Amino acid sequence: MVIFWIFAGLTAFGLISYGLQILAVRSYLRETERRRRKGIVSPCHCIPLSILKPLKGLDDNLFDNLESFCLQDYPQYEIIFSLRDHNDPAYKVARKIKEKYPGKDISLIVERCSAGLNPKVNNLIPAYQVAKYEFILISDSNVMVGRDYLREIGKHFGDPDVGLVTNLIRGVGGRTLGSVFENLHLNTFIMGSICFLDRFLGMPCVVGKSMLMRKENLLAIGGFRSVKDVLAEDYVMGKKMHKMGKKVLVSSYFINNVNQYWGLKKFLNRHTRWGKLRWKIGGIRYFSELLSNSVFMACFPLFLYAPSKLTGLFAVMVSCIKVTGDFYIGRKIKAEMNPFLYLLSPVKDLIIGIIWFIPIISNTVVWRGNRYVIGKDSKLSPCTEPGLWTWRYRVLNAIKARLV
Amino acid sequence: MLLCDFHIHTKYSDGSVELRRTIDLFGQSGFDVVAITDHIVNGDNTFGKLTTRFRFSITEENFNEYITHIREEAERARDKYGMLVIPGVEISKNYLSSDKSAHILILDIKEFISACWGYEKIFLAAKEQDSLIVACHPHYTLSKELTSRDTLFLWNNREKYAKYIDAWEIANRDDVFSVISLKKYPYIANSDFHRVRHIYSWKTLLNCKKNVEAVKQCIRQNKGVAITLFRN
Questions:
Q1: With left for phi above 0 and alpha for psi between -120 and 50, is residue B196 left, alpha or beta?
Q2: What are the backbone dihedrals phi and psi of residue B40, each rounded to the nearest 5 degrees, phi first?
Q3: What is the CATH number of the domain that holds B123?
Q4: How far apart are alpha carbons A322 and B133 in whole angstroms?
Q5: Contact assessment for residue A173 and residue A183, using Cβ atoms and an 8 Å cutoff
Q6: What is the pLDDT of residue A41?
Q7: How confident is the model at residue A307 (pLDDT cuts 50, 70, 90)?
Q8: Catalytic pick from A234, A326, A349, A377?
Q9: What is the rounded average pLDDT of the residues A173-183?
Q10: A185 closest CA partner among A381, A341, A305, A362
Q11: Which of B37, B29, B31 is nearest to B7 (CA)?
Q12: Is B64:B89 a contact under the CB 8 Å cutoff?
């Protein structure tokens, strides 16, 4: 019984922290809503900017995602699509976009840059070299934005102390279980954590899917080459910018991350990788993620004891609170998700709770087909074939084969 | 080169994705030419009757609606993605024995063709409409999917029917039929798309203009045709 009350206490802690996350998200939304209600249109601080789009493979909704950047209500900008390979299926989509919008300033760069181990940074380096404007916007290929995106993100640079502006991401479009889980996680845990850290702890979280900065500031922090061998290049860039005394802002403007046809495996892979990244960056703080997973904590007594009325009811009650909270955030941020899908939220939390443990026992990541060892502050190093890692994977594979 | 897939099913028969979404899926992935080819199943046996009963087949009654819908979507696909959409069907003659079964793609179809007709009647009706006739998955497949069955009739009777057939599927989804190349028949490769994951499969590359006539001519002449395994 004592153990049950310990877990009940941890669950209460998780629920309180979740409540704070909801408050943080609300405070962001209030700002946007206030502007909307008052009909305030952002004054255009229309700095000419270069959008760097690193492309690799087909993301869901890729054509629309890329097209949304051609439809910006913004006077002067260029788009640079950067790929490693002409055979990349994204190349054809990028070419179609370029052909559809001949009046837009669009460049297609195909270059196999191997400066570092981070493939996204390798992709960004050639694009950066041809960027002609003073401001550069790094934007992932899986985001879709509204027409006023550049206007909204650019306005912050009226303040010369601003070093980097990033955005909140909203997961939309889920049609498979994997995508629904992904979108639920983005819209609740990820968004809640970013808002919470920024609003209440003053720790700016940079989301690599959208980062706008001045070239001179990027150079001052060492340029792309300074992050060529780290997995969390966005976090490191934000941290360096902050250290340099520049403001790192999270814009309250939402950008859509379209995840439609993800398999469960892709969801698990991504969050295992992100978990490893946060473990390496956050260290002991990583444990707070488990403690704030109230559903997982509430279900723990169910597994420790034989299920009883008390433990069962407790888990169901906490799950209901979590579903309601997730539904509330989803409605507030206009996630356009079928309300019944929020019932999957506790299942997602349980899965996330289980994969939380993986980073503790493994420090290798597979990213775009390559295996790396991930070190402090997400520093990557190649995973050498012989040695401990191979041995461990051999054992894991043998266990997997047995289970199959 | 045009990236093409000429064998795509939607919810009009046994596909799992609606027509509009299917078009979007291929458009978003940068395809240049696709053909929508839902099944017309022979209703002359119990299996065929059940298929029609559970609406896994295009029938004479809903054929016009099907074609109209494809044409509407074709217009949208052209404007939005610059993608050519060709209406088609897959005539599916299913029997218990694989040796008796055959599936035929009729591309650029205009009038309904019944799967209960004899082979020659089907081919002649398709020729009359200037449609393209493709023998699909004509040999043994390695597919592990429950619904996939071998359809060997056309290959076993190729001496008789090859003259009617404009092209043979040399690759279907993950299978490659090397016998087609050994016979030097005109070939194309398709996904036989039923589910989203099937988009990553064998495809055809054509070196021709992006219009229906040029595409048909290119396949018939079998010049400037290549196949590629489309992977992400």
A1: alpha
A2: -115, 110
A3: 3.20.20.140
A4: 56
A5: yes
A6: 62
A7: confident
A8: A234
A9: 94
A10: A341
A11: B37
A12: no
For residue A360, how far is the Cα from the chain centroid?
21
Q: For A227-238, how does the pLDDT look when each residue is reduced to its tens digit (9 = 90+)?
A: 999 989 999 999
Residue A76 neighbours by CB under 8 Å, 6+ apart: A46, A48, A49, A133
Min Cα distance B18 → chain A (Å) is: 12
User: Which H or E element spans position B180?
Assistant: helix B178-183
C-alpha to C-alpha distance for A175 and A66, rounded to whole angstroms: 21
CB atoms within 10 A of CB A357: 11
Q: Which of B11, B28, B201 to mutate to test the interface with A (most CBs of A within 10 A)?
A: B28
Give chain B's domain count: 1
Q: What are the pLDDT digits (tens) for A51-80?
A: 999 999 999 999 999 999 999 999 999 999
**Count of A-B CB contacts under 8 Å:** 37
Residue A304 reports pLDDT greater than 80:
no
Q: Which residue of B has its CA nearest to A261?
A: B196
Single out the residue of A133, A159, A141, A164 nearest to residue A83, CA to CA: A141
Q: Do A63 and B3 touch (CB under 8 A)?
A: no
**Domain encompassing residue B87:** 2-229
pLDDT of residue A389: 54
Interchain contact, B30 vs A92, CB within 8 Å: yes
Give the whole-angstrom CA distance, residue A105 versus residue A72.
12
Rounded to whole angstroms, the Cα distance separating A335 from A379 reads: 34
| C-alpha to C-alpha distance for A121 and A108, rounded to whole angstroms | 16
b/e per residue A123-146 (b: at least 16 CB within 10 A): bbbbbbeebebebbbbbbbbbbbb
For the stretch A5-42, pLDDT in tens is: 888 899 999 999 999 999 999 988 887 777 667 766 66
For tokens 């300074």, name the residue.
Answer: A226
Give the whole-angstrom CA distance, residue A68 versus residue A129.
24
Token pair 């043979």: residue:
B168
Cα(B48)–Cα(B95) distance, integer angstroms: 9
pTM, 2 dp: 0.90
Question: Is B29 close to A58, i.e. CB distance below 8 A?
Answer: yes
Q: CB–CB of B230 and A92 under 8 A? A: no
Which of A320, A239, A246 has its CA nearest to residue A281? A239
Q: What is the mean pLDDT of each run of 10 residues along chain B (232 residues)?
A: 96 94 96 96 80 81 95 97 96 87 94 93 95 91 69 89 93 88 88 93 96 96 94 84
pLDDT of residue A120: 92
